[in-house]
Amino acid sequence: MGMAALLLVWALLHCAGTVTMVRASHAVYPELQSLEAEKVDETSRTGYHFQPPKHWINDPNGPMYYKGLYHLFYQYNPKGAVWGNIVWAHSVSTDLIDWTALAPGIYPSRQFDVKGCWSGSATVLPSGVPVVMYTGIDPDEHQVQNVAYPKNLSDPFLREWVKPDYNPIIAPDSGVNASAFRDPTTAWYGPDRHWRLLVGSKVGGKGLAVLYRSRDFRRWVKAHHPLHSGLTGMWECPDFFPVAVHGGGRHYRRGVDTAELHDRALAEEVKYVLKVSLDLTRYEYYTVGTYDHATDRYTPDAGFRDNDYGLRYDYGDFYASKSFYDPAKRRRVLWGWANESDTVPDDRRKGWAGIQAIPRKLWLSPRGKQLIQWPVEEVKALRAKHVNVSDKVVKSGQYFEVTGFKSSDVEVEFAIGDLSKAERFNPRWLTDPQALCKKRGARETGEVGPFGLWVLAAGDLTERTAVFFRVFRANSSSSSRLVVLMCNDPTNSTFEAQVYRPTFASFVNVDIARTKTIALRTLIEPSVVESFGAGGRTCILTRVYPKKALGDNAHLFVFNHGEVDVKVTRLDAWEMRTPKMNVPAQ
Ligand code: DQQ
């Protein structure tokens, strides 16, 4: 393969991002912050995606497993459907599916958090004691880091939290921007018997993962250099954790606990992931690399773009995510927040705003080139009525209806008849798949694709959201390679012009010339379409608000607008039961 082709392949594999803006999440509407919802409009509320009974939610906070219960805290406005009055709402579950709502765990009560309790993480100490570290907003609007301990360790619900008087444990020093200093990570313990954690920050246009060390979890000292930094503006919600490598001594899909970070034997078998949430673009990026405990330096592996064109967990509406190690199933689980795409007046009218994406198991791909995510296995327990389609050819221009379930989980595999007809790929498209998806949306016919699903579709197809693939051929002087675009086109999801309808998209890192097939799993509910392409290599979550395709009128179709026939080798669609979603504790 010539150098040009090598460069092209490298670029194809790694230039999956774009810097298009997602609507800002924390726009502040002081006059609306404390207006209680008069009623809750259930029309576009989700069933099995996490949400509280009403009001605004954003970032997942401090997820952990303790004494048989999964805990999820999250940023919540108890007084209204816009951001403000932020507390840590608290829910527990035995299975990540049915949730019980408890009273908020952390809320403003002291000088060091009187103006808000912002995002943070949980660390389970070697003694088994869980501790949460969060950002408090003090009376001067400075962002400080605080710690809280459970009042009663024998309560698996961890209902009450005690904030020691010695808070804040980390205050911004003169070298730190006090209004850009937040979101502490889970702490990890080093071979030098020091705890470490990261705090997101910025200096000028540079985002920072500021590193702190402590012997006793109480007195924290800033390291001379951040763990990592980048010219991408403020870094919110950093996450730093190990992942098993394929070929290591253990199953590579298993999770690794941050507590194992100092294990020298394990060091050969793990890589590290650094994820940051970019305040400027409202997208998240990650790199995979090595971490040197002695120097506290993190170095991304060659091939990972260490900027806002890097790899993302999700190419749609997914932000401020946080992972945790689940010791019960030895896996790493990822939570992420999906903001609304409708308007603030819509949210006020609905009485609620924001959901959490389905918790995803996350692991490193066998070749170590990217992370793979898949809905936690527990989701399958919600599958009810089932429809199957096998070996059905969808000819050019054809479509067929599968079913009309209100909420569904759909798994489909497409086999492509003739890949030699794939359209020519213009290398200029590499940097902006979202723009390519807009230009070549679901209605634009092609050669190999667009083919995929119309979801949340009205029976007459006047409303529909397309989740689809297109295959292109990228030629260089000496070789050619197939490029797969995965796309989410909500332009016809509603006719409400003011709803934000971005054509989220990414390239999928698959060798389709070899497999000749591509798989898609999509979780569909009122107002959310969460898709996993090629077994979880590319994920796209979109919020949509159809007016007609609601309830039993929400249909699912398979379509092919490409010249080349495709075959649905297998399609399984399940109607999803509604779990107990945040019923109050008795
Ligand atoms: N949301 C929190 C902050 C965090 C931001 C405030 C990210 O701690 O930086 O609600 O969405």
UniProtKB/TrEMBL annotation:
Residues 378-575 form the Glycosyl hydrolase family 32 C-terminal domain. GO terms for molecular function: beta-fructofuranosidase activity. The keyword Hydrolase applies. Gene3D superfamilies: Exo-inulinase, domain 1, Glycosyl hydrolase domain, family 43. It is an enzyme of class 3 (hydrolase). Residues 1-27 form the signal peptide. SUPFAM superfamilies: Arabinanase/levansucrase/invertase, Concanavalin A-like lectins/glucanases. CDD domains: GH32_Fruct1-like (cd18624). Its EC number is 3.2.1.26. GO terms for biological process: carbohydrate metabolic process. InterPro entries: ConA-like_dom_sf, Fructan_Metab_Enzymes, Glyco_hydro_32, Glyco_hydro_32_AS, Glyco_hydro_32_C, Glyco_hydro_32_N, Glyco_hydro_beta-prop_sf. It holds the Pfam family Glyco_hydro_32N. Belongs to the glycosyl hydrolase 32 family. This is Cell wall invertase. It comes from Zea mays.
